[in-house]
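Renewal narrative, Specific Aim 1. Our central claim is that a sequence can be written position by position from structural information alone. The example that follows is taken directly from our test logs and has not been curated for this report. It begins with the structure tokens describing the chain, in the order in which they were read.
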């Protein structure tokens, strides 16, 4: 396997920095409707990275954003929930992009990913805290996930449609992509 080129590394670092910035800004905002609920706008960059490069790079971005984001915001306790849910959501998105993107939109992929992210995060919290009553949040988290996933998916759709991102891939061999 060939080492990634400088252009790819710089692009991934830039997308990670954008994702981290949005994550930190969003962490300062009050929750939506129920405790801990956020729009998840930093996921725009995760999904865009997935579409642009693939699942390994998207997981790397999620790792960087989550670990650095918890250091910056001081929310160390949430790393277990966020990281677990983020990796599972990216895995689902990667599977859907690889197998179904020609039949479903990037918006649908994003909605499915956001709903799964919220459900996994809630399940991890329930398991760690031994608070089964938190399962009652599940329908609300699914609705918030669907709405935020649609917003994130629409943003990625617009990026893919209007951004000359293919220039980011020029000079990147098929093995690197």
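The sequence written for that structure reads:
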């Amino acid at each position: 396997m060939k080492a990634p080129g400088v252009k790819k590394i710089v692009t991934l670092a830039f997308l990670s920095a954008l994702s981290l910035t949005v994550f930190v800004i969003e962490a300062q905002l009050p929750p939506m409707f129920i405790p801990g609920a956020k729009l998840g706008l930093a996921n725009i960059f995760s999904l865009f990275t997935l579409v642009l490069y693939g699942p390994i790079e998207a997981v790397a971005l999620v790792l960087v954003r989550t670990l650095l984001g918890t250091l910056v915001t001081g929310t160390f306790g949430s790393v277990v929930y966020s990281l677990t849910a983020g990796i599972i959501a990216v895995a689902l998105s990667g599977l859907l992009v690889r197998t179904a993107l020609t039949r479903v939109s990037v918006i649908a992929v994003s909605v499915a990913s956001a709903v799964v992210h919220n459900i996994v995060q809630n399940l991890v919290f329930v398991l760690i805290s031994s608070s089964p009553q938190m399962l009652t949040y599940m329908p609300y988290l699914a609705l918030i996930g669907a709405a935020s996933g649609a917003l994130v998916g629409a943003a990625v759709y617009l990026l893919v449609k209007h951004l000359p991102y293919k220039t980011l891939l020029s000079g990147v061999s098929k093995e690197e992509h």
